[in-house]
Amino acid sequence: MACQDEFDRSADSRPILVAVDGGVGTQPLLRGAARLAELSGASLIVAHVVPRVTPVVPEAVVLQTELRHDVAVSLFAEVVEGLYDCPVACRLVTTTGVAAVQLAQIAKQYRVAAIVVGADAPGLWNRIRRCFTGSVPQRLAHLQSAPVVVLPGACSRTLKVAAAERARREAHGR
Hints:
Number of strands: 5
Distance between the termini: 28 Å
CATH topology: Rossmann fold
Structural class: alpha/beta
Strand content: 15-25%
Oligomer: single chain
Number of domains: 1
Strand order of the largest sheet: 3-2-1-4-5
Shape: globular
Helix content: 40-55%
CATH architecture: 3-Layer(aba) Sandwich
Radius of gyration: 17 Å
Order of helices and strands: HEHEHEHEHHEH
CATH superfamily: HUPs
């Protein structure tokens, strides 16, 4: 992972925004977005949106603030781990609110070239949840003028196969 100076120097090309939630698909999503940024010569903005919860009691505000800090620290460690060998300059942004709305605002603020998100999780429970909360990729597509790239959870295997094939070709001088 490159330093802040390299992020600023790569401002010639518009950055790629990747939204992460710290779930099991975070590592493949980071690697997929980093690969896209590397291929396009762009930097990477890693964004995490903590949902805003309306507190019932005043103590909940303190707990939510502490939780946001803990999540941000653990997420930062996960981002560093996921991008440690990546040659792409990276910036981590955390905020609170509705994920699609906040990601659209971050995309507008940084004038991103594309937004990379993970596919919605499969399963009946997640389908029911999406009926009430909606899909972040779908909402982003309606809120944002930048392209929205949805990567499935299995993309890391595809990227590993492609990287291995490229390394094999380079080793053989082709």
